[in-house]
Amino acid sequence: MRIFDPHIHMTSRTTDDYEAMYAAGVRALVEPSFWLGQPRTSPASFFDYFDALLGWEPFRAAQHGIAHHCALALNPKEANDLRCTPVLDALPRYLVKDSVVAVGEIGYDSMTPAEDTALAAQLQLAADHGLPALVHTPHRDKLAGLHRTLDVLRESALPADRVLLDHLNETTVKQAADSGCWLGFSIYPDTKMDEDRMVAVLKTYGTERILVNSAADWGRSDPLKTRRVGDAMLAAGFGDADVDQVLWRNPVAFYGLSGRLRLDACQPGALHEGNSILRGGE
Ligand SMILES: [Zn+2]
């Protein structure tokens, strides 16, 4: 089973996770930018983080045979913090980098006016840079959040078929599917979607335009949830081609819209700016 995790925050994960992901079949991933767990206090903090997602983390992933790409943005939560919003002005110089395959994750957290502004501005940046957008839908008030998201999308310059709506569930999938956007589902150990509910969604909506991710981050999460969905699909009677479409071909098609996907980028033993992850004597 070959797996592309289209949304996972490796910066908060360990080398054990990379090893287990490779063993489970993960060969590529996209790491969207998000918060640090604690508030950032200046745009400079974003710049170091963006540089890590562009350089250090792809290098670390390559040591484990996994191709790493990223999506960059001001995240929805910090769109409300005036110490952070100036990062919007600096984003254009990052969005031109080779391994940036989307603007993301953007969208709503608490659905504030500041989040409206950041979402609209970043959809425009995606359109200007020929990039698709990864749009997070809120974890509270999901349906209202989706409606507001779709309203802003319709007024944007970015067509629906270049947008991935993420963190969907049974309450939002119908309207998200009708919008013409790509559909993302985050599978978690004990909240939101699980693998059996995901299989039920796939039985109802089919395998087109649907992406499944582990969204693994600082909280309790499982970076092998993609594999577990593949196994649950096979157990439920889906074929290998269906699994390959959901876990590989759909994410490749979506992020391929950027024209920047490189799926051969694995060079174990290489150096990153003169540094390896090996310790003395290894
Ligand atoms: Zn995320």
Structure, explained:
With 282 residues, the chain is of the alpha/beta class. Helix content is 40%, strand content 15%. Strands 1-2-3-4-5-6-7-8 form an eight-stranded parallel sheet, with helices on both faces. α3 (87-95) runs parallel beside α4 (113-128), α7 (195-205) crosses α8 (225-235) and α8 packs antiparallel against α9. The longest helix has 21 residues, at 43-63.
Helices and strands in order:
Blueprint: E1 3-5, H1 15-24, E2 26-32, H2 43-63, E3 67-72, H3 87-95, E4 100-107, H4 113-128, E5 133-136, H5 142-154, E6 163-166, H6 173-178, E7 182-186, H7 195-205, E8 210-213, H8 225-235, H9 240-256
Parallel strand pairs: 1-2, 2-3, 3-4, 4-5, 5-6, 6-7, 7-8
The structure holds zinc ion.
Zinc ion (ZN) binds at residues 7, 9, 32, 34, 105, 215, 217.
Decide which structural class fits the backbone: alpha/beta
What's the number of helices? 9
Shape: globular
Biggest sheet, open or closed, and with what strands and sense?
Answer: 8 strands, parallel
Count of beta strands: 8
Question: What are the low-pLDDT stretches, counting only 5+ consecutive residues below 50?
Answer: none
Helix content: 40-55%
Give helix and strand order, one letter per element, not per position: EHEHEHEHEHEHEHEHH
